[in-house]
UniProtKB/TrEMBL annotation:
The lineage of its organism: Bacteria, Bacillati, Actinomycetota, Actinomycetes, Micromonosporales. This is Cutinase. The keyword Calcium does not apply. Residues 1-40 form the signal peptide. One of its GO terms (molecular function) is carboxylic ester hydrolase activity.
Amino acid sequence: MPVSTTTRPRSVLSRIGRTAMAAVLVAGGALAASSGPAQAADNPYERGPAPTVALLEASRGPFTTASQNVSSLSVTGFGGGVIYYPTDTSQGTFGAIAISPGYTAAWSSISWLGPRIASHGFVVIGIETNSRLDQPDSRGRQLLAALDYLVERSSVRTRIDGTRLAVAGHSMGGGGSLEAAASRPSLQAAVPLAPWNLDKTWNTLQVPTLIIGGENDSVAPVATHSIPFYNSIPASAEKAYLELNGASHFFPQTVNTPTARQAVAWLKRFVDNDTRYEQFLCPGPSGSAIEEYRNTCPSA
């Protein structure tokens, strides 16, 4: 199937930082330094070691994490939840992701995603919704309220780069992540999982979006949800669609290697602007667990 290539830089280099680095190199006579440090200077958001398949498929990434509960009584706009964050304070700030569960579900239904994603160098908040029956538009607003809380009021706010934020969710939470991304184009990434939404057209969405669907989903069939969503998002946004072979609507509720592997790679590429992860996005995953994969092949 045709693959288009677009360019969408997700970070702006610091002119001051580049100038200062050049001055140090000249003063030290190190203009012939190896490419490793130069590449690190080019991307101040790069976190963690060079990625491998084994690293992405492991139950935890390279960062040790901790968690803390957030009471619904201490927040507004969403129902509280759990924050997961890297304990390493030597890496600078991290990007942050808010994740919503699905219709009638609690965060515990997909809570394995919290420490899994955080261990790759992100602050994650898994939210409880105001009501188990909240629709996608409400869940989208709640995801944004959770991000605002993380950046402005949470006890881990000093660990977060408020310019590098993303959303994700399952089912109506996945539909909510589309709503959030459409209403806040400054987000760096969205990862809807088996998304459900009555709105099928997202042609104004400009946030890089990875949609993961299940081949045998009978609640939000990919033919009437994930695929139309993907097709309607403009290629200029950067997008990918992963369909899991034989998977039901509830695949995000169990530890699933293709889901975590691709979600982490997507977040690293677009939230951290880490081009080392492009190898996992283009040409993308293959094997018996994958029914189909489409993408726009992000460019550095």
